[in-house]
Specification:
- This protein has helices at residues 35-50, 99-111; strands at residues 13-16, 19-24, 29-32, 58-60, 63-66, 69-72, 75-78, 84-90, 116-120, 125-131, 134-137.
- By secondary structure, it is an alpha+beta fold.
- The chain has a single domain (20-137), classed as tt1808, chain A (Alpha-Beta Complex), CATH 3.90.1570.
- It has a six-stranded mixed β-sheet.
- β10 and β11 (134-137) form a beta hairpin.
- The two termini are 25 Å apart.
Length: 146
């Protein structure tokens, strides 16, 4: 399990039709502020502000094909050659990452063969590195290797 220290929140938030909206700095648009979106936005801030991952190499909620199914990953960090480097699956804080999330990220990994896989609900974070055909659990998120 990885313990993260999140930066103090400084998001732009507004209400539309009595629904909270958060401004996504990467996608440059307002999004419905769900519990999962709160986790995603805070996790991205850790990647950018604490681990110094380049904003230009982070993609959020893009559609992919997994076999015949259309799915959307939460966060994908590319390496300098624009190849998948880290795949992150975000869950709402009340959902404990378990076997279902683990298999979900592994299915996405078929289409996006990233070196690092991460599952987080904001309080509980697990990460693995793919090496020599197996996954090794990590005690910390990887440093940017740019």
């Amino acid at each position: 399990m990885i313990k993260l220290s999140y930066p103090e929140p400084d998001f732009s938030i507004r209400h539309e039709n009595d629904r909270p909206m958060i401004f996504d700095r990467i996608r440059k648009r307002w999004l419905l502020l769900t519990e999962e979106e709160w986790v995603r936005q805070n996790f991205v801030r850790v990647l950018i502000e604490q681990l110094h991952y380049p904003v230009a190499l982070i993609a959020l909620e893009k559609e992919i094909r997994v076999g015949e199914l259309r799915k959307r990953f939460d966060i994908l960090v590319y390496d300098q050659q624009h190849q998948p480097w880290m795949l992150v699956e975000c869950k709402a804080p009340d959902i404990q990452p378990g076997e279902k999330a683990y298999y979900q990220v592994l299915r996405y990994h078929i289409t996006l063969p990233a070196t690092f896989l991460v599952i987080t609900n904001g309080t509980s974070t697990q990460a693995w590195e793919k090496s020599n055909g197996s996954l090794q659990e990590l005690n910390a998120l990887p440093a940017w290797q740019g």
